[in-house]
Each structure stands twice: as C-alpha cells, then as structure tokens.
Amino acid sequence: NIPYNPKEEHTLVLIKPDGYARGLIGEVISRIEKRGFKIIGLKITIPTQEELEEHYFEHKDKHFFNSLCEYMSSGPIVAMVVEGSRVVQSFRNMMGDTNPALALPGTIRGDLARDWGPDRGVENIVHGSDSPQSADREIALWFPEMVD
Ligand code: RTP
Ligand code: MG
C-alpha cells in the first residue's frame, strides 16, 4: 500500500467472487484507471462471515442476507482502496444499478453482470461504498493497516 492521504476522497471497491471467477479483475481495474482514479491499496482475500456481517451490517435483517453472505464467501474477492476527486459517487455511477437487469449499458454491471436467476439472486460483480462515511468505515475494516 502507498500512503493514505486523508485530504483526498476514497472509496472501497470489492470485485466480488463472480467477478474474480469470471476473470474480470483486469476489466474492472482498467475502467477505474481509465477514469483517472488511483488504486492505493489492493488485496485478494476470501471474506469471513464476521467480516461480511460488519461490511454489510445495514442488511443483516434483509431476506437476502444469508444468500449474500454465502455468495460473498464462496471464493476470492479483490479489495481495493481507490482515490480521486468525487470517487465515491463516480464509482457508484460506474457500477450501475444493483440489479443487473436494471443496470444501464456502459456500466460495469450493465455490461458484465448476468441476470439474477433463481440460483444466483445476488451476484453483480462489484461493490462500491455508498457514501464517504461508509467508505471510511469499510476501508478501516478491509485495510486496517492503512488507516491506523
Ligand atoms: P453493494 O453494497 O454490494 O455495493 O451493492 P449496492 O449498494 O448496489 O446494493 P445494496 O442494496 O447495498 O445490496 C448489497 C448487495 O446485496 C445483494 N442484494 N440482493 N436479491 C436482492 O433483492 C438483493 N438486494 C441486494 C447484492 O449483491 C447487492 O449488491
Ligand atoms: Mg450497498
């Protein structure tokens, strides 16, 4: 990792297990770099149940929470800290709608994610923080060494 400058805006990006398994790491990283954002932290890990309960705490009472945790712990993910001006909202725009069927062409999910079938109701390639506050919390969870 390279130095974390708290004056810059950051977001936490995850390439989820379907993105990793389908060989889309390069595609996602390429889109981030072409947009002019800087990757300052990067690791491959298999999330634990504890990490997912913390990462997705806002969803713990939702009907999809169990399948979400099963999906997210089913294989390796790539976690990244991405830096740049207004990167939180920009990366949300780059991801597209949560549901791949509603994600517009030109977005990561709209171009790459498969439709949600009965067997994979939660897959959508990537995660991006939904606010700068969420980003701070998520970066502290996945990259504690970077911010302590
Ligand atoms: P993320 O947090 O992963 O960046 O996705 P998001 O903001 O677009 O969507 P969010 O509402 O935070 O949901 C988190 C993840 O849970 C799965 N999900 N499944 N079956 C469903 O109705 C449903 N709703 C959400 C997705 O993997 C979603 O990205
Ligand atoms: Mg979310």
Summarize the structure.
The protein has helices at residues 17-21, 25-34, 49-55, 65-72, 87-95, 108-112, 132-142, 144-147, and strands spanning 10-15, 38-45, 77-83, 126-128.
Describe the structure.
The protein has 148 residues and is an alpha+beta fold. The longest helix is centred in the C-terminal third of the chain and has 11 residues, at 132-142. It has a four-stranded antiparallel beta sheet with strand order 2-3-1-4. The protein has helices spanning 17-21, 25-34, 49-55, 65-72, 87-95, 108-112, 132-142, 144-147; strands at residues 10-15, 38-45, 77-83, 126-128. It has one domain: Alpha-Beta Plaits (2-Layer Sandwich), CATH 3.30.70.141. The structure holds ribavirin triphosphate and magnesium ion (MG). The site of ribavirin triphosphate has 10 residues, from strand 4. Ribavirin triphosphate binds at residues 59, 64, 68, 98, 121-122, 124, 127-128, 130. The active site is at 127 (pros-phosphohistidine intermediate). Its main location: cytoplasm. InterPro entries: NDK-like_dom, NDK-like_dom_sf, Nucleoside_diP_kinase, Nucleoside_diP_kinase_AS.
> Given the structure, what is the number of helices?
8
Measure the end-to-end span. Answer: 13 Å
CATH classification class: Alpha Beta
State the secondary-structure class.
alpha+beta
Q: Poorly predicted ranges (pLDDT <50, ≥5 residues)? A: none
- The overall number of domains is 1
Helix content, binned percent: 25-40%
What is the CATH homology-level superfamily?
Nucleoside diphosphate kinase-like domain
* Ligands: ribavirin triphosphate, magnesium ion
